[in-house]
């Protein structure tokens, strides 16, 4: 008997999943010992012409799908918290494995879906919610068996990364780079979710749940978009041998989880330095393996479909159910440098406003400084003057030392 799957939504992701199942029938049958067949597809508009086989139920009514005589796996490829959450709840209650690419829904309701799935002895696949084709969820699941994860950093939004790349390489303004991203289909007509960091924020929460078994307080996570980055700041970064990246970060400090989504600067020794365009990358720091970085396409029809299909194979083999999915990881070890960020680029600040505890490394432009201090001092400074913008420098010590040496060389 074949494994019967339903796909909810037939946009970029949904269609990619359907096409991949069709093109990889033999591989799936070899892995699972059974054929995988798409039994139904949920759509919004029945009048739209689609290339779907006649034996597939194509409907706008979810009840027709959930009431099929055989249904084993439901793939969620729609957007928004609802009705995706209610659809997947019904699928679990029926005894179906579920797979989702919906990060907003899963960030809000993932915990409830995981608990419900445990009650009904089915699996929840969500690899595609975080970084497109990068298998970060499965990697974290493997690491969690022995390694203790302390910190995760990632470029997980291809739209923002594309815009920052275009601004640097083509010397474009933010509006110009955004317009190009929209023309290429990388950014929506309303790009707020991407450029203001909401999309990355949801992905951060999902990563936190997998790595630490918990989430930071949503209201205490710093979320800063990329709209404050100007062409002038891009040029300053270039002169310093740095590049702007929009990075999510989560780490453990004692019993606290500390998360942020914000623009940072990386030097050429950092693994994110060469992550360009719509590429994504995730860096994991754990006690045994140390630091590892996964990089790959963060969006698109087939990279995202790849993540869904890997989850489908996992769900189709009931003997491979993950025993570590809900396992909380409570113990941790200290970061080696004792602080998440030591160096910062400050913009829009006067030298006289800097306290003695903020050490100036270099003035790089008018009202723009590289400083060394602790994060608490930066937050105090921002509270006193909200117009000041700051950008942490990740692993920038060597780059700054090299720059200092070049400046002191005499001929």
From TrEMBL:
Catalytic reaction list: L-homoserine + NADP(+) = L-aspartate 4-semialdehyde + NADPH + H(+)
Enzyme Commission no: 1.1.1.3
Record domain Aspartate/homoserine dehydrogenase NAD-binding: where: 9-126
Membrane-spanning parts: none
Molecular function GO labels: homoserine dehydrogenase activity
PROSITE patterns: HOMOSER_DHGENASE
Highest taxon above the source species: Bacteria
Pfam family, one: NAD_binding_3
Keyword terms of this UniProt record: Amino-acid biosynthesis, Methionine biosynthesis, NADP, Oxidoreductase, Threonine biosynthesis
Similarity field: Belongs to the homoserine dehydrogenase family.
Name of the protein in question: Homoserine dehydrogenase
Organism: Bacillus xiapuensis
Lineage, opening ranks: Bacteria, Bacillati, Bacillota, Bacilli, Bacillales
């Amino acid at each position: 008997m074949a494994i019967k799957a339903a796909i909810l939504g037939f946009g970029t992701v949904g269609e990619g999943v359907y096409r991949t199942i069709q093109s990889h029938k033999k591989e799936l049958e070899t892995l699972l010992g059974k054929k995988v067949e798409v039994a139904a597809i949920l759509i919004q508009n029945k009048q739209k012409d689609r290339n779907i086989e006649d034996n597939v139920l194509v409907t706008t009514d979810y009840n027709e799908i959930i009431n099929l005589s055989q249904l084993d796996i439901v793939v969620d490829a729609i957007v928004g918290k609802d009705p995706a959450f209610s659809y997947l709840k019904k699928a679990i209650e029926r005894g179906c494995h579920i797979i989702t690419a919906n990060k907003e829904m899963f960030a809000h309701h993932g915990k409830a879906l995981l608990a419900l799935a445990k009650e009904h002895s089915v699996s929840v696949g969500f690899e595609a919610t975080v970084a497109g084709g990068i298998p970060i969820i499965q990697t974290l699941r493997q690491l969690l068996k022995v390694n203790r994860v302390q910190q995760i950093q990632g470029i997980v939004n291809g739209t923002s990364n594309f815009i920052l790349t275009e601004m640097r390489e083509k010397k474009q303004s933010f509006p110009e780079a955004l317009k190009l991203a929209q023309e290429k289909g990388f950014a929506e007509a309303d790009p707020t979710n991407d450029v203001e960091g909401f999309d990355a924020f949801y992905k951060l929460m999902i990563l936190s749940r997998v790595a630490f078994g918990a989430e930071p307080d949503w209201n205490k996570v710093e979320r800063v978009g990329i709209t404050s980055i100007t062409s002038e700041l891009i040029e300053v970064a270039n002169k310093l041998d740095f590049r702007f990246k929009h990075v999510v970060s989560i780490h453990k400090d004692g019993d606290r989880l500390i998360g942020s989504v914000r623009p940072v600067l990386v030097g050429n020794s950092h693994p994110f330095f060469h992550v360009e365009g719509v590429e994504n990358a995730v860096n994991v720091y754990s006690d045994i393996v140390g630091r590892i970085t996964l990089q790959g396409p963060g969006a698109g029809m087939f990279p995202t479909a790849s993540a869904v299909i890997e989850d489908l194979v996992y769900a189709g083999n009931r003997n491979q159910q993950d025993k570590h999915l809900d396992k909380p990881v409570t113990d941790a070890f200290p970061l080696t440098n004792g602080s998440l960020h030591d160096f910062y680029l400050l913009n829009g600040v006067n030298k006289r406003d800097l306290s003695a505890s903020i050490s100036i490394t270099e003035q790089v432009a008018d009202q723009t400084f590289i400083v060394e201090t602790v994060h608490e001092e930066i937050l105090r400074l921002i509270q006193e003057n909200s117009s000041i913008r700051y950008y942490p420098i990740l692993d920038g010590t060597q780059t700054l030392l090299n720059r200092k040496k070049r400046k002191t060389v005499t001929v």
